Structure formats: structure tokens, C-alpha cells
């Protein structure tokens, strides 16, 4: 599903973000990326979404070499992904429902259909009753769950989550992880960057990065 | 096709939403652009009103050839074939009429109402002459050709004076030409002003919506999807400004015509400025929207690239 072959990324001469990364993630896997800040977790996720481009190596998503993808093809790649970031990037001038509808409208879905699917996604993360509210009126955990609803509303094949539980209390973090586990349960490939030890304790596969290099891999 | 229409409907709605979000700012921008557009629109209104007038004035130019008083009648009449040849050589067509001095005097007496005064002069002070009526001409270039013809006629033996009475038509044609050029440069300059205002408006909007643009990109928005609302905003701004500018010009015509009618009456004319016709107004609105669209296009191209 996701293949990294000797991928390197550097900013200038001295700042190495990723160095010679080779890894493979199969369909339906739940994989955690861990490591200290600056280890390259976010860069790796951004590369899968073609937000960043590698300096060398190849990245394949669903068999497609995304390093060769033209800029006009990137939007279509991103529509097959569900992206969740540490900072929720919800639009504060739009309601929760409108935020979740956005990826569907971007893809050209009819408004009525988008609304129906957005409500279903909000229901899955337990926030249907918050539909008319604005993001600023929600707690951090709720905002993160809205971001998850927005990420899965397009029924993506892959979910990329960058520190989805950062800055959340334990109860909220568990709710977020429960939601992500649910999607993994229905066959969605999930790649989650985190350094939350409690989450990693129950993980099936953890990839550790250090200074942009693949340090070790654990399959507890 | 449905998706394409849906995307455009979404973009248009989005553009309206953003405009209504800050109606004061949009209104001011419309006003600035409208003032810039009103000037060339007013100029065009004046030109469109004068144009038919000048076309009506494009009558057969008349050349009067006055002979010297001491030229014998036989030599005067013998000049007719030479005049016709000169006219023919200058690739003109016209009607030549000989006016003997006696006939000229009668005409003068009948026309001017100074019959008694002219009779009191005793001798006939008028010379023999010819009146050459040429085919109509429209522009200043043709008038120059008539001047050359007049110069050739003046060189004929026995000719004292040649008068071309089309000079004022020539002046009017030249003046209209200058006015058209001035209007063109004015419109071009103010067109740039309009585009600059729209450019800046869209720049601010792109900056304000930076976060939204980034989020949309993250979820697979194409460049067309992101750009469309800005294009619609630019076109709407131009369109609204064009409509306001036309309204300004139409409103100004009322009091202006009051003064013009009084002025024209002094010259026994009923001339007054009429509003532009509907098809021209539609064309001006389309042009205003087009200018807005071009301004938005340039702005989006420049500023969206920076965000990506």
C-alpha cells in the first residue's frame, strides 16, 4: 500500500529531515511512527500526501510512484487520503458540519449528499449533536474528533495522523484513538505519528525514527 | 457536466458569501472602480451623441472659384473644361456650375436682405465665378485632398480667389478623431486602474483566506477549485462597478441636458445628450466584468503561487 525506497529529504546542506528510509506498509495495517521531536515523523507523513517531495528515493502509494506525479495530479492523490494534524486546522468561521463537508464539496459532491455523509461521519465520532456549533466552542478533544470526521468523510483508503492526541487529556486522547481504531477495524490503513507511550503500548507495529533515520521497528 | 456546473455554482455562492461577509469594503471597492469607469463611459456617451451629428454634416463640400474682375467673360467660360480636367485628375467627382456676376448679385440681394444697400453701391462689386460641388467626404484625410485640389484651381489663369467651405467640417472630423484618441487613452489608463484595484482587492482576499486555501488544498482541492471564487469575485466587482458607473452617467445626463438644451437653442438646435443604447451598455458591462476578471486572474496567479 505504502512503499518507501531509500527516501531522503534535506533542507539545505546540514538539515537532514529523512535519510535513506526504506519501509513498507500493507493494506489495512495500523502502524505507529514514533521518535523524539525532529526525528522526521511529520516529514514522512507529509511525503505520503505529497506536501513535501523527497530529494532522492521513491515513494509508492497504491502502486503509484508519487514522486513522479504531476502537480495537477496531487489533489486526486490527496482525495484518497485522510489527513489529521496536531493542529486541527478547522475553519473557525464555518460550522462543524460545514468543516466536515468541505472535502466532499472539494471533490465535487452534491451539497445534499455531502451533508448526509458529513452527519454520518460526525455520528461515528460521537459529535453529531455539535453539527451547528463553531469549532471555537468545542474542547480540544472534540475539535480533534471533528478533524477525524473530516478526514474519514471521503472514505479514504489511508489515514495519516500527525500527533492526533497531543495536547489532549487522557480521556479525550482515548476517544480519539478509539475513533481511529474503529476505522482501522473496517480495513482502512492507518499511519499515526505519536510519542504518547500509553498509545504505543497497545500497538501492533511501531516504527522508530531518530534524526531522520529508521532506528528500529517493533512488533509487540 | 453536472459536477462542473456544481463546482461553478459552489464558487459563485462562495464569492457572494465572501462579498456579503464584508459588504462595506466591497461597496467601497465598487465605488472606486465605478468612478474610474464613469469617466470613459461619460466620454463615450458624448462621442456617441456627436457621431451621428458629424455624419449628418458630412455634406458635399463646395469650392467657390472667384475670377479676377478684369477677366473677360470668354476666358472665364473657357476655363470650365480645365476645371473639370483638374477635378478628374484628382480622382474626384463633382458638379460644376458657372455663376455670372449678374446672377451672383441677384442671389446676394435675395438672400441677405440688404437689397437697398447693394443697389446703392451702383456698380456690381461681384466677379464671375464657379461653384464646384464635390462628392461627400467623411474624414480629415479626404479633406486634405480637397485642399490640394483647391490649390490647383487657384493656380489657373484669371482665378483671383478659391474658397473651400468644408474647412469647418474638416475641423470637426479632426476634432472627433482627437476626441476618440483621447477617449481611447483615457479608457486604457482607467482600465489599468480598474485592474489594479481588483488586483489589490483579490490580493487581500487571498491573504484573508489563506488558511481556508491551505485546508482546501490539503483535502484535494484543485487549483481551479481554489481560483474560481476569486475569479467570480473579480468579475462581480467589475460588473457591479460598471452598472454603478452607467447609473452615474445616466443620472448626470439630466442636469447636464438642462444646460445643453439652453445652449443648443441659441444655435437653433434641439441637440441634447441621449443615454447610450442598450447593446452598448451590455457591451460596457461585459467589458467591466472582463477587466475585473483579468485583474483577479493576475492577482490569483501571483499570490496563490506564494501560498503553495
Topology record:
The complex is a heterodimer of chains A (220) and B (308).
Chain A: E1 2-11, E2 15-25, E3 30-34, H1 41-48, E4 56-61, E5 64-65, H2 74-78, E6 81-84, H3 96-106, H4 111-124, H5 140-152, E7 158-162, H6 170-185, E8 189-193, H7 197-201, E9 205-210, E10 213-218
Parallel strand pairs in A: 3-8, 3-9, 6-7, 7-8
Antiparallel strand pairs in A: 1-2, 1-4, 4-5, 9-10
Helix pairs in contact in A: 3-4, 3-5, 4-5, 5-6
Chain B: H1 2-21, H2 23-56, E1 62-67, H3 73-78, H4 80-89, E2 94-99, H5 101-112, H6 115-120, E3 129-134, H7 140-154, E4 159-164, H8 167-208, H9 210-218, H10 223-266, H11 278-307
Helix pairs in contact in B: 1-10, 2-8, 2-10, 8-10, 8-11, 10-11
* Helical stretch tally of chain A: 7
Helix content of chain B: over 70%
Mean of pLDDT of chain B: 84
Main sheet: strands, sense, barrel of chain A: 6 strands, mixed
Order of helices and strands of chain A: EEEHEEHEHHHEHEHEE
Shape of chain A: globular
Distance between the termini of chain A: 22 Å
Count of folded domains of chain B: 2
Proportion of beta-strand residues of chain A: 25-35%
Helix content of chain A: 25-40%
Low-confidence stretches of chain A: none
Overall radius of gyration of chain A: 17 Å
Strand arrangement within the widest β-sheet of chain B reads 2-3-1-4
Q: Give the percentage of residues in beta strands of chain B.
A: 5-15%
* Number of E strands of chain B: 4
* Class by alpha and beta content of chain A: alpha/beta
Class derived from helix and strand content of chain B = alpha+beta
Amino acid at each position: 500500500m505504502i512503499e518507501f525506497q531509500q527516501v531522503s529529504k534535506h533542507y539545505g546542506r546540514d538539515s537532514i529531515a529523512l535519510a535513506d528510509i526504506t519501509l513498507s506498509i500493507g493494506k489495512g495495517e495500523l502502524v505507529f511512527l514514533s521518535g523524539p521531536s525532529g526525528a522526521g515523523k511529520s516529514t514522512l507523513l507529509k511525503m505520503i500526501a505529497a506536501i513535501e517531495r523527497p530529494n532522492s528515493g521513491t515513494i509508492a502509494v497504491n502502486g503509484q510512484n508519487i514522486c513522479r506525479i504531476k502537480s495537477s495530479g496531487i489533489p486526486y492523490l490527496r482525495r484518497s487520503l485522510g489527513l489529521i494534524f496536531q493542529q486541527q486546522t478547522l475553519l473557525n468561521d464555518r460550522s462543524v458540519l460545514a468543516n466536515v463537508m468541505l472535502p466532499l464539496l472539494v471533490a465535487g459532491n452534491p451539497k445534499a449528499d455531502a451533508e448526509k455523509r458529513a452527519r454520518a461521519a460526525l455520528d461515528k465520532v460521537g459529535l453529531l449533536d455539535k453539527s451547528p456549533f463553531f469549532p471555537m466552542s468545542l474542547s480540544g478533544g472534540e475539535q480533534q474528533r471533528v478533524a477525524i470526521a473530516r478526514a474519514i468523510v471521503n472514505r479514504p483508503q489511508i489515514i495519516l495522523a500527525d500527533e492526533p492526541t497531543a495536547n489532549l487529556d487522557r480521556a479525550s486522547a482515548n476517544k480519539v484513538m478509539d475513533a481511529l481504531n474503529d476505522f482501522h477495524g473496517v480495513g482502512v490503513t492507518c499511519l499515526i505519528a505519536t510519542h504518547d507511550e500509553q498509545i504505543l503500548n497497545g500497538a501492533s507495529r511501531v516504527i522508530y525514527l531518530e534524526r531522520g533515520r529508521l532506528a528500529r521497528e517493533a512488533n509487540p | 457536466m453536472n459536477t462542473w456546473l456544481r463546482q461553478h455554482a459552489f464558487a459563485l455562492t462562495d464569492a457572494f458569501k465572501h462579498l456579503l461577509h464584508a459588504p462595506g469594503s466591497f461597496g467601497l471597492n465598487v465605488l472606486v472602480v465605478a468612478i474610474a469607469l464613469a469617466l470613459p463611459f461619460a466620454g463615450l456617451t458624448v462621442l456617441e451623441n456627436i457621431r451621428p451629428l458629424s455624419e449628418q454634416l458630412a455634406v458635399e463640400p463646395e469650392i467657390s472659384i472667384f475670377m479676377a474682375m478684369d477677366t473677360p467673360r470668354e476666358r472665364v467660360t473657357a476655363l470650365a473644361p480645365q476645371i473639370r480636367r483638374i477635378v478628374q485628375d484628382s480622382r474626384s467627382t463633382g458638379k460644376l456650375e458657372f455663376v455670372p456676376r449678374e446672377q451672383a448679385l441677384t442671389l446676394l440681394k435675395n438672400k441677405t436682405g440688404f437689397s437697398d444697400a447693394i443697389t446703392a453701391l451702383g456698380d456690381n462689386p461681384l466677379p464671375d465665378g464657379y461653384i464646384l460641388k464635390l462628392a461627400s467626404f467623411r474624414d480629415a484625410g479626404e479633406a486634405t485632398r480637397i485642399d490640394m485640389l483647391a490649390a490647383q484651381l487657384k493656380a489657373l489663369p484669371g482665378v483671383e480667389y478659391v474658397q473651400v467651405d468644408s474647412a469647418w467640417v474638416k475641423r470637426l472630423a479632426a476634432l472627433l478623431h482627437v476626441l476618440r484618441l483621447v477617449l481611447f487613452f483615457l479608457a486604457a489608463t482607467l482600465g489599468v486602474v480598474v485592474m489594479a484595484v481588483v488586483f489589490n482587492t483579490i490580493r487581500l482576499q487571498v491573504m484573508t483566506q489563506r488558511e481556508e486555501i491551505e485546508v482546501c488544498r490539503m483535502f484535494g482541492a484543485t487549483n481551479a477549485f481554489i481560483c474560481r471564487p476569486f475569479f467570480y469575485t473579480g468579475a462581480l466587482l467589475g460588473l457591479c462597478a460598471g452598472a454603478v458607473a452607467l447609473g452615474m452617467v445616466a443620472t448626470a445626463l439630466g442636469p447636464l441636458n438642462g444646460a445643453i438644451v439652453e445652449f443648443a437653442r441659441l444655435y437653433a438646435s434641439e441637440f441634447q445628450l441621449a443615454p447610450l443604447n442598450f447593446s452598448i451598455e451590455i457591451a460596457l458591462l461585459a467589458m467591466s466584468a472582463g477587466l475585473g476578471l483579468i485583474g483577479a486572474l493576475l492577482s490569483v496567479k501571483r499570490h496563490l503561487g506564494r501560498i503553495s
